[in-house]
Amino acid sequence: MRLNDATTALYGCRRKEELTGRRILDFVAEQDRDRVMDNMERAYEQGRSSSIEYVLRTKTEKEIHAELSTALLRDKSGKPAGFIAVTKDISERKRAEDEILQRTRELSALHQVLTSITQTLDLDTVLSEIVSHVGAALESNYTSIVMVNEDGSLGIGSEEFVDITPLSTKPRPKGSARRIVDITPSPISARPHGVTRHIVKSGEPVVIDDVDAVEGTNPILLAAGIKSYAGVPIKAKKAIIGVLFVHSTRRNAFAGKVRLLVAFADEAAIAIENARLYKDASTVGALREADRLKTELLANVSHDLRTPLTSIKGYTTTILRHYDRLADDEKRDFLREIEVASDRLTELIENLLQLSKLEAGGFHMQKEPVVMVSILSNAIEDIEQKTKGHRFLSHYQEPLPLVDADPRRIRQVLDNLLSNAVKYSPDDTEISVECQAAERELIVRVRDQGVGISPEELDKVFDRFYQASSGASQRGGGVGLGLAICKGIIEAHGGRIWAESALGKGSTFAFTLPLEKGSISDETDDSRDQ
Ligand code: ADP
Fold it and tell me: Which of 42, 139, 223, 231 could form a disulfide with 245 if both were Cys (CB 3.0 to 4.6 A apart)?
């Protein structure tokens, strides 16, 4: 074998003499020897062969990527006399190729993340998509996104485990990703290794190639067999909103991968911000809905406000303009109309104020132990004075336990239900009021034999401004706020209110109130006392 200087150097020899007695195959890595032999045989048969790549093993056992081209040498008579082999060091090219391959892989993983996360705006889905793509692209055994909450606390936004036992001590049912707002910091981020905090504070990536070489690694990670990990900050426009972590059970798994991880984190930041903005937009939607309700309320109310105002204005103008020509009786009638319209206006405004306070939760109930029967009896007595057409009956289970309630408000509810019963049922029919105690509550029912309410409208009558079609002819001055207020009051007491009805036969409005604590016979308490 004769070699030029460059090849001698490539084989790891300083002088050509070192190669005496050795064959080319001695400098070929074992796994490639058959291929090199084949290549030479082909050159022998065909005169030359196409070049092949192989691993060259130098004299000092160093492995180099090389390329071999072989051609047959013939003597003057044309008989094969030997080979001429050209060996080229291609390690540089190999490295560049590998890098291109790796880069392509990275780009395609990034592209995948981009397409899938831009298709969703749900934050939990965005986070788990990122985690799963990053995990796959970087062959991570444990991939996680730790989020920085608004109050500065940390919590796992999403995590994924591959070929590793999940680390979290609290098992989480599949598909129940923790929400950013209410994530409780998981043990992994609460541990003192402090890497997450460090990354959030410094804004710089951290790569640990060998956990055994550094101190203070999270013991949970160590116990899970993690050998190396990397974390990069997820930087939103204004702040660092989280950290993207990859962990591996192999050492040095992420050396040289930081650039890719940062690219992923940048995509993650955009996707997270988008999802958050979208969530805020939903809040804007809710506000818009509230605004729409307010407009609807004004539209409803302005009509009801204007009617009595118009009549007040009309009668007042008439009286003033024709004061001398009007008889005293006429003037009194007009003044009475003005009084009625003013009362209606006052009532409407009071109802509206009360309803808005009830809905905003700002209505304070002055609760006290209440004897229900006396409220019921007083309410019936008062309505009996005002209406002569109906018969009132009452059925009370006696003795009734006390309830913890605001007596004025409960009376208001009863007045409302009773006047509705009168309003929506013809003369000469019965209206009955029943009261009985159940295990933990008192149930009151106001039953009439009136027009009734259709089944699909039973719940709606408690909505503000809702007026059922069956009651149209009897409605009079109502605006559909009474039952909405009743509902607000009863619910503020911790009770329920509902209606039962058969169209044309009558309606029953029922509500419950929780019994006063002392009046509930609690068996467990009793047994404890004994
Ligand atoms: P209003 O009586 O001022 O219209 P409410 O809020 O008190 O407002 O009642 C809402 C609607 O429920 C009424 O318009 C009526 O259609 C229906 N309603 C209430 N009580 C009864 C009842 N006892 N029988 C039949 N329909 C009723």
Answer: 231
Give CA 90 to chain center in angstroms.
54
Q: In the prediction, which pLDDT does 179 show? A: 34
Q: Give residue 177's pLDDT.
A: 38
Cα 41 to the center of its chain, rounded Å: 68
pLDDT at 49: 82
Decide: 507 in ligand 1 pocket, CB within 6 A. Answer: yes
434: its two tokens: 């029943």
> 475: Cβ below 6 Å to ligand 1?
yes
Using CA atoms, how far residue 180 sits from 124, 238, 284, 515, in Å, is: 8, 18, 19, 40
Q: What's the gap in Å between 475 CA and the centre of ligand 1?
A: 8
Residue 198 has pLDDT above 70, yes or no: yes
Encoding tokens for residue 60? 């000092």
Nearest CA to ligand 1 atom 7: 482
Interval 347-403: pLDDT, tens: 888 888 788 778 766 678 899 999 999 999 999 999 999 888 999 999 999 888 999
Distance between Cα 468 and ligand 1 center (Å): 7
| Residue 170, Cβ density class (10 Å: 0-12 exposed, 13-18 middle, ≥19 buried) | exposed
Tell me how far the alpha carbon of residue 210 lies from the centroid of ligand 1, in angstroms.
75
How large is the average pLDDT for residues 164-182?
47
